[in-house]
Amino acid sequence: MTDITAVISDVVDKYDAELIELRRDLHAHPELSWEETRTTDIVAAKVEAAGWRVSRLTRTGIVAEIGHGERVVALRADMDALPVKDVTGDPWASTVPGAAHACGHDVHTTALIGAAQALGAVADTGLLPGRVRLLFQPAEEVMPGGALDLIAQGAIAGVERVFALHCDPAVDVGRVGLRSGPLTSAADRIEVHLRGTGGHTSRPHLTGDLTFALAKVTTELPAVLSRRMDPRAGVSVVWGVVQAGSAPNVIPDRGLVGGTVRILDAVAWSECETIIREAVIDIVRPYGVTATLDYQQGVPPVVNEVRSNEILAASVHDVLGPGAQVEVHQSLGGEDFGWYLDRVPGAMMRLGTRTPGGATYDLHQGNLRVDERAVGIGARLLARSATRALVTDW
User: Fold this and answer.
1) How far, in Å, CA of 171 to CA of 219, rounded?
2) Is pLDDT above 90 for 238?
3) Rounded to an integer, what distance in angstroms lies between the CA atom of residue 300 and that of residue 225?
């Protein structure tokens, strides 16, 4: 397999400057979920030029394949940006008001294009030991995620394993975070809408004290879940929106609280909605108001299959040498890559994007910067993981 590694490295070296320019172009022209038309056009052209068979999806995104044989391995990259203002001030900062690649999907997409170029060269040499399928996926940043759209269109039919990477700005460039088992958490969205008669704050006994009830939901629902659910499941409810009233002496007749529910355990995830619905009704009952719950199940946890994670570890060693692998903890972040792993074995790696000794940024923030050396590293790792997986026994 040494020859394949060398071919991959040579091709990525050849296209390195072009890939960085491409990443900057994508960063400057971010497209929100399900709007990735320009990105799709660019990806399709680049991948087709590398010799791949390209199929466009019904909305945005593409699936591409190369090689021959029974065995199929898939590589996935997400393409969408976030509704966040870019405040980096870089020359390639977003030109789209209120949109930015604040999660690194521009890096993911570009790295997979680099992997496509490298694997195209491997196929030309006759060294590709099977088929590789590329999943350029839209809409990862919305629930329940664009992964379900690809799955419904048959994107992973016949696939043995699927791999992906995600930028990690807390890990130095040249290092890769790996973990067998759960890597991210399940993530759901919740809104509790309260309705009451409203009234004067001097007479709360004659009306439903909706604001007080709303405060009870905000504080007591997390407490109830800590007793109703196994604490090892790591259930976390965090509110981002609390709205009620417009005057200090008026009890409002409606209000809402909204947030996210994050769960480390897949079994607990399947039980959580029912328990939350029961708890909310019980919490508001004494206050003479009614509650309506909008609960959107988002994404399952990303659970890295052990053998697939071992393939990633071997690929990290091949590409970056000993000492490049670092262990990472399970995150409470959500990732719709979990939908693929719910059906097919696979694993996700965390690609280091921090300049050693430089600032540590956070994902989903408009000031996110990445060390662009990560683009070529990601391309090599994805390509090598695919070729390793095609010769690995189950």
Assistant:
1) 35
2) yes
3) 19
Question: What residues contact residue 171 under an 8 Å CB cut-off, 6+ apart?
Answer: 177, 326, 328, 350, 351, 352, 353, 354
Please tell me whether residue 311 adopts helix, strand or coil conformation.
helix
d(CA 356, CA 171) in angstroms, rounded, equals 9
Rounded to whole angstroms, how far apart are CA atoms 69 and 317?
A: 27
- Residue 296: count of CB within 10 angstroms of its CB: 14
Q: Which one, of 56, 111, 55, 125, lies nearest residue 351 by Cα? A: 111
Side-chain half-sphere CA neighbours of 185 within 13 A: 20
CA dihedral 32, 37, 43, 46 (to 10 degrees): -150
> What integer pLDDT is reported at residue 2 of this predicted model?
54
The one-letter amino acid at 257: V
pLDDT at 389 over 70: yes
Query: β-strand 346-354 against 131-137: which pairing, if any?
Result: unpaired
Listed residue (109, 126, 88) closest to 7, CA to CA:
126
Give the SS3 label for residue 52: coil
Domains located in the chain, CATH noted: 2-184+301-389 (3.40.630.10), 186-299 (3.30.70.360)
CB-side neighbour CA atoms (13 Å) of 330: 19
pLDDT at 394: 60
At residue 350, φ and ψ (nearest 5 deg) are -105, 115
Query: Residue 27: pLDDT above 70?
Result: yes
Q: With contact defined as beta carbons under 8 Å apart, do 125 and 309 qualify?
A: no
Half-sphere exposure of 363 (CA within 13 A, CB side): 22
Mean pLDDT value of segment 134-159? 97
Strand segments, DSSP code E, in 124-204 are 131-137, 161-172, 176-178, 181-182, 186-195, 199-200
Q: Give the count of beta carbons closer than 10 Å to the beta carbon of residue 104.
A: 26
